[in-house]
Structures are given as structure tokens and as C-alpha cells.
Write a structure and sequence with these properties.
It is a single chain. By secondary structure, the chain is mostly helical. 69% of the residues lie in helices and 2% in strands. It has helices spanning 10-15, 27-45, 52-77, 85-103, 107-128, 133-151, 167-170, 178-196, 198-208, 210-215, 220-246, 257-267, 279-299, 303-321, and strands spanning 156-157, 172-173, 176-177, 248-249. Residues 1-19 have low confidence and may be disordered.
């Protein structure tokens, strides 16, 4: 995705001499290079790493992670963050399975609309009440996690008579798993929105310089609401994919996806400060995390050490993309 630089650099012009820019490796190249390096290392560590079965496992997990990360990316691009995605996944998961027993196929659009409404609520809390997105979404995430437990205190299974409905996700099309197909469709839709629509461009403008965006007449409230709705829809689609894969809903299903969705966005090269990055970055970020997690298990890395490696990757990625000219990291 082409980065949009809305910082006018007026201070440089006033001084009459532009400052020299340091030579910097583009974050997307860092992500691609690190991905290739991991593939080589894990293949050397275990030749079964590149088996067809294992590659299928990696791509399926990456597809699911990418969907929720694409939504998270939209909020990070505007300079915010969404910590409610875990609660959204958990809540939507149990609502989806319960609804599936009653309305069948209509459960799919029902929970996607529910996810959009959750995102719209997050956006309005942020823009109307004017509290930081970190606090706003942390609060709504807790509320949604509680609601998930109220709907179903324990995991609930999909009845066997509804298994055929789950083939929408669990099946395959032309030999390609539907999980991968869904992931690619979501990637394509988000790419088109950000690249070719006014709302997509506004997300970049707001993330790059919110004051200049407001002065240019951009509707900040509408843009932020839209970004959080994208995040809510991404989390709800992820909940559907996970629930179908495990043939049931789980009120704690989304806990791990709060950190993982943020990590996938950052290691792919999207800046935490907003305005820089895009869907392709997030694609490589999801692939990197999927390869890393699978590869460490295949070669036998101590499970207690794996989180340390992920932490190092996040720190390195933020160091490469962090815009130190901005006073606030998260608005």
C-alpha cells in the first residue's frame, strides 16, 4: 500500500534547508526478508516443515489471523487501537452457535451485523465521549467478555444436524480450503476500500495528521467510526471461522487474539502511530506469525521461550515504523 505523507514539513521549508533523511529499510522489505529467513531456518531444523499438510496448516491459521488483523489494522491506521477484538470474538462465537440452532444460515449475516454494531459503538465512545481508544476498547472488551459468559458459561457445541451449514467455512472450493478463500476475499475487499475509496484515503489522512485532516474538511467522527466498524466485522468473521473449525462456540475463544492481531499488524510494517502501512503489510505479518508459531513447535522450541521471541519481533517492528515526530502514540 502506498504510504500517504500528510505532514507538510513546514518547519523544514521555513528554515530554508531540508534535513537529510536517514536511509531506512522499508518495513515491508524487513517483513518479507524475515519471513524468508524463518522459512529457511525451520526447513533446516525439520524437513517436514515444508510438507503439504504442514503448509496447509500454516495457511489456514494465517488466513484466520489475517482477517482479524485487517480489522485491527484499520484502527491502527487512524492512530487508534482496538482491544475489544478478543471480547468480540468470544461474544460473537457463542451468539453464532446459539443462533445457528435457531435460524440456520441466517446466523452468518446476523453476527456480521452484530460485529459492525459493536465497532460502531466503539467508534462513538471514542469520538463522542472523547476518551482514548485504549481505555474505550479495553472497557468494551471486558463488557463483551462478560456477555459471552452470560450467553454461554461453558463451551457450546453445534448440533450434528447443522454440520452441513458449517461447510461454508469448513469445505473447499476447487481444491482450495474455504478458510483461505474467505481470507483472500476479506483481504481483497479491505485493499479496494483503502486504495480506491474516499473513506479509505481519509483513514490514512486522519492517521497521518488529524489536525490537517480536520482543517481539510474531513469528517473525523465518520472516518473513525468506519475504521472501528471494519475492526468489528473482522473480529466477527474470525469468530465464525473459529467456531466452524471447532464445531462449537467458546466464551473465552478470543482472548489470545488481542495480542496476536496487534502483533500481526506491527510485524508486517504498519506503524503504531498511524498513517503508514496497509493490507499487504498485514498479510505478511499474519504469515510471519503463523510460520513462527508453527515452526517453533515443529523444531521443538521451548513453549515458555516462544513468547519471548514474539516480544522481540514486536519491539523490532515498532522500532522500524514508529514515527517519533508525533507526540502521542495512541489517541
Amino acid at each position: 500500500m502506498t504510504d500517504l505523507d500528510l505532514n507538510t514539513g513546514s518547519s523544514e521549508q521555513e528554515n530554508g534547508s531540508p534535513r537529510r533523511k536517514k536511509l531506512q529499510i522499508p518495513p515491508i522489505l524487513f517483513a518479507v526478508g524475515l519471513l524468508v529467513a524463518m522459512l529457511i531456518v525451520f526447513t533446516i531444523g525439520n524437513r517436514n516443515f515444508l510438507s503439504a499438510y504442514n503448509l496447509g496448516t500454516i495457511t489456514n491459521y494465517a488466513s484466520i489471523l489475517m482477517v482479524i488483523a485487517l480489522g485491527q489494522m484499520a484502527t491502527i491506521l487512524i492512530g487508534g487501537i482496538d482491544l475489544s477484538v478478543g471480547g468480540t470474538v468470544s461474544f460473537v462465537s457463542v451468539v453464532f452457535v446459539v443462533s445457528l440452532k435457531v435460524v440456520g444460515y441466517w446466523a452468518f449475516p446476523e453476527v456480521i451485523i452484530l460485529g459492525a454494531l459493536i465497532g460502531f459503538a466503539n467508534g462513538n465512545i471514542l469520538t463522542r465521549i472523547k476518551i482514548p481508544s485504549f481505555i474505550a476498547t479495553l472497557g468494551t472488551g471486558g463488557i463483551l467478555s462478560s456477555l459471552a459468559l452470560l450467553v454461554s458459561p461453558t463451551p457450546t457445541d453445534v448440533p450434528s444436524r447443522a454440520y452441513s451449514i458449517l461447510d461454508i467455512v469448513n469445505g473447499s472450493t476447487l481444491g482450495i480450503t474455504n478458510v483461505l478463500v474467505i481470507g483472500l476475499i476479506v483481504l481483497g475487499v479491505v485493499f479496494v476500500i483503502l486504495r480506491f475509496t474516499r473513506m479509505g484515503r481519509n483513514i490514512y489522512y486522519v492517521g497521518s495528521n488529524i489536525r490537517m485532516s480536520w482543517m481539510s474538511g474531513i469528517d473525523i467522527v465518520k472516518t473513525r467510526n468506519f475504521a472501528y466498524m471494519v475492526s468489528g466485522v473482522g473480529a466477527s468473521i474470525t469468530a465464525i471461522m473459529l467456531s466452524c473449525a471447532q464445531f462449537g462456540g467458546d466464551p473465552t475463544l478470543g482472548t489470545v487474539y488481542v495480542l496476536n492481531s496487534i502483533a500481526a499488524v506491527l510485524v508486517g510494517g504498519t506503524a503504531l502511530t498511524g498513517g503508514t502501512g496497509g493490507p499487504i503489510n498485514t498479510l505478511f505479518g499474519a504469515l510471519m506469525l503463523s510460520v513462527l508459531e508453527n515452526g517453533m513447535n515443529v523444531v521443538g522450541v521451548n513453549v515458555f521461550f516462544q513468547q519471548s521471541i514474539l516480544g522481540i519481533m514486536i519491539i523490532a517492528s515498532v522500532a522500524l515504523t514508529f514515527d517519533r515526530s508525533k507526540n502521542a502514540v495512541i489517541k
